[in-house]
Amino acid sequence: MSGLHLQPIPAAERDSLAWWIDHAPLAHIHVGWLNPARWVGRPVSLQLADSHGRTHAALVTAPDGLGVAWVQAFACGKGQAPQVAWPTLWDAARRALIELGVRRVWAMTSEPSFADILRAADFQQSSEVVMLTYFGERVDAPAALPAITLRHMQAADLPAVLALDNLAFTPPWQMDREALETTFNASAVSALAVSQAEAIGYVLATQSQGRLHLARLATAPGWQRKGIGRALTLHLLQQAGRRAAGRLTVNTQIENSASLKLYHALGFRGGGRSVVVYSLNLEHSSPAAHA
Ligand SMILES: CC(C)(COP(=O)(O)OP(=O)(O)OC[C@H]1O[C@@H](n2cnc3c(N)ncnc32)[C@H](O)[C@@H]1OP(=O)(O)O)[C@@H](O)C(=O)NCCC(=O)NCCS
């Protein structure tokens, strides 16, 4: 690409580059409750800059603490064609990710133009995330579960919750320590299910613009199908009612039939646009697959 050179985004430029990405005329930003800025400036985040150091395009796909890499951001400045910028950035990112030991990269989008770029780079559709909204009216109190108590989560619970979260979810949906801490700190409602001092399930919900979002729900594998997920969700719904949250939403994958059954039974309904999840196995990816 004439006049532009490829370089890593230095950690020291994290804030200015995160701002640039946020304000770029064309940007794909990963959908999630964590600010994508946290990945800017970490390996692997790259930019195409001119000789004056001005950024023209950027790609951020830094792996988390579990080695899972999402395309967190891809942005192009004015006049920079994404189909031209992507191959250069992606080729370098792909190589760097392989060197870091990353085997699969994930991306989530509802934008057809970015989906075209991903498909041209050999990304395959692997799932779909749907948003459900609570439309129920009456919230039953959670049924008492023998020898299981629900209480607020505290910072001291995080190591145990992280362990159960990582057992309950499969890649790429597990959270690393940093993501869990950030979500916990941002949560408006939390509850932990405990049996004999063992953390066996938890729920976290964040709140923004008067709306509660069920950010996380998990029951430890050995404790599933005993009513804990339902009890935690009902607890949250009661809290939502008290807070007059207006709306309560949750995202889940279309193949996650356990969570879909649970949410539907409680009065959540789908609607709106779903977000497609793409992934690419780096071991079989070829640098020739370009947009
Ligand atoms: C989804 C999840 C939290 C449910 O927790 P749980 O404690 O097992 O749920 P409950 O025992 O309260 O089940 C409530 C209802 O959900 C449905 N359900 C739960 N697990 C199910 C499964 N494996 N298959 C089919 N339906 C299921 C059933 O309708 C069930 O009612 P029933 O047992 O009376 O038939 C649990 O499966 C889990 O942690 N999964 C991995 C993490 C995850 O996907 N979290 C949700 C992300 S949005």
Task: Identify the notable features of this structure and list them briefly.
elongated; Aminopeptidase; 2 domains; alpha+beta; binds coenzyme A; ten-stranded mixed sheet; five-stranded antiparallel sheet; 291 residues
Number of helices: 7
SSE pattern, N- to C-terminal: EHEEEEEHEHEEHHEEEHEHEE
Q: Which band does the percent of strand residues land in?
A: 25-35%
* Main CATH class of the largest domain: Alpha Beta
> What number of domains?
2
Structural class: alpha+beta
Q: Work out the number of β strands.
A: 15
The radius of gyration is 21 Å
Supply the CATH superfamily name of the largest domain: Gcn5-related N-acetyltransferase (GNAT)
| Rounded mean pLDDT score | 92
Shape: elongated
DSSP helix fraction? 25-40%
Helices and strands, with pairings:
Layout: E1 5-8, H1 14-23, E2 26-29, E3 45-49, E4 55-60, E5 69-70, E6 73-76, H2 82-99, E7 104-109, H3 112-120, E8 124-134, E9 149-151, H4 158-168, H5 177-186, E10 187-195, E11 198-208, E12 211-219, H6 228-242, E13 247-253, H7 257-266, E14 268-269, E15 275-281
Parallel strand pairs: 5-7, 12-13
Antiparallel strand pairs: 1-3, 2-6, 3-4, 4-6, 7-15, 8-13, 8-14, 8-15, 9-10, 10-11, 11-12
Structure commentary:
This protein is α+β, with helices and mostly antiparallel strands. The chain has two domains: 5-128 and 276-284, 3-Layer(aba) Sandwich (Aminopeptidase), CATH 3.40.630.30; 136-266, Gcn5-related N-acetyltransferase (GNAT) (Aminopeptidase, 3-Layer(aba) Sandwich), CATH 3.40.630. 29% of the residues lie in helices and 31% in strands. Strands 5, 7, 8, 9, 10, 11, 12, 13, 14 and 15 form a ten-stranded mixed β-sheet that branches. Strands 1-3-4-6-2 form a five-stranded antiparallel β-sheet, with helices on both faces. The protein is elongated and about 70 Å long. Coenzyme A is lined by residues 168-169, 201, 217-219, 224-230, 250, 252, 256-259, 261-262, 265.
